[in-house]
Amino acid sequence: MELRHLRYFVAVAEERHFGRAAERLHVVQPTLSMQVRALEKELGGPLFVRTSRRVELTEAGTAFLVEARRALAQAEWAKTTAQRSMRGEIGSVRVGFAGVAVLIGKLGRDLEIFHERYPQSRIEVRELVPRAQGEAILAGELDVGYSPGFGAVTHPDLRADRIGTSPLVVAMSDRHRLADRRTVPIRDLGEELLLVYSAGGEDDSTVGDLREQLGGHPPDRVRHLPSTLSVLAMASAGLGVALVPAQTANIAIPGLAFRPLAESGVVAELLVLSRGEETSGAARALLAIALSVIE
């Protein structure tokens, strides 16, 4: 038994006439009659009493009509649900992010647009260091990641698109020896402990990526921290300095000072990470939003 058999049966039951039902279904009458008879044979008895003028339902046909309509409605609901999920209108999207995405404002704007367009889709967010985001996406634990370029995972199955940049500034205690400078040359950071938002470890490329951005300059002393707030808290306490997006200076944090680098062109990249072959409609919808406006 197929859905078309149910549609044919319901049309005949509602029209009470094979000719009119055939016109409604856009099939020829002999085909319709053959399909209905095949259905009756499968069920083991007649569904209609046929006369020269009308077609009437048998008792079994009346009972079957209720269930046939219900089955067709459920099939249509299943189809609609799948299509809505493919469009991202329902379902969920799991988003990993680093503090830079929040500080630049990109993550908040993208999630706001996504929620306005797809209010029935669920958004889950987790702060994760860059490497952990890429690993979680590859493992199927995350759908989309908003990651700085420093320390991001590279993998053939992982897609990375640049969606924003921001100049880097130095974050330090307002009592730090460099806090009275208008700008801070990169070379003056060589003696400082650099606070880095990353997991650390042999596989972590954050520091190497950062040194490359700084033209090969030190610092050589680095401390890895697991969250953006940890970095800012340690910097405000005078326990190191950090390089953060310029927008961070818009946040009033007691004891924390921000100074531009003397050298121009030192920027933080913001990437959106995703699987190369994404099947989740909600994830694809968020990616489309993220890629539609490059900061």
How would you describe this protein?
The protein has 295 residues and is an alpha/beta fold. The protein has 2 domains: 3-87, Arc Repressor Mutant, subunit A (Orthogonal Bundle), CATH 1.10.10; 92-292, D-Maltodextrin-Binding Protein, domain 2 (3-Layer(aba) Sandwich). It is 41% helix and 23% strand. It contains 10 helices and 11 strands. The protein has helices spanning 3-15, 18-25, 29-43, 59-87, 99-104, 106-117, 130-138, 206-213, 228-236, 281-292; strands at 48-50, 55-57, 92-97, 122-127, 144-148, 158-173, 193-197, 221-225, 242-245, 256-260, 267-275. Strands 3, 4, 5, 6, 9, 10 and 11 form a 7-stranded mixed sheet that branches. It has a two-stranded antiparallel ribbon with strand order 1-2. Strands 7-8 form a two-stranded parallel ribbon. Helix 4 (59-87) runs parallel beside helix 10 and helix 6 (106-117) crosses helix 10. The longest helix is centred in the N-terminal third of the chain and has 29 residues, at 59-87. The radius of gyration is 31 Å and the shape is rod-shaped. The relative contact order is 0.15. The mean pLDDT is 88.
